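ok trying this again, last paste got cut off
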Amino acid sequence: MSIYEEGEGFFKHRSVKKVVEKKQTMSDKGMKIEEIKTIGYDIVETTDYGIPVREAYNEIDRIQDFAQRVKQAINRANKTELVEMPAK
């Protein structure tokens, strides 16, 4: 896949795949003969309007920061000693 056009906020990719037809036959001497014939090409074009890279990394950083705060809160809670409350 290769980028063939790039603009503000999008990339256009093109993928070209050769379509072949294989035909196997046996010769008079018992040898296998393989004929390969090119039928055509499959061309797939895709336009990617994905999230700009910096925005994606900012979101990942926010999620990782939140996960770190949760881990720290769990560690603090595990270190806290429980106190029995007197019954009234």
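PB: full thing came through this time. The chain has two domains: 1-49, 51-80.
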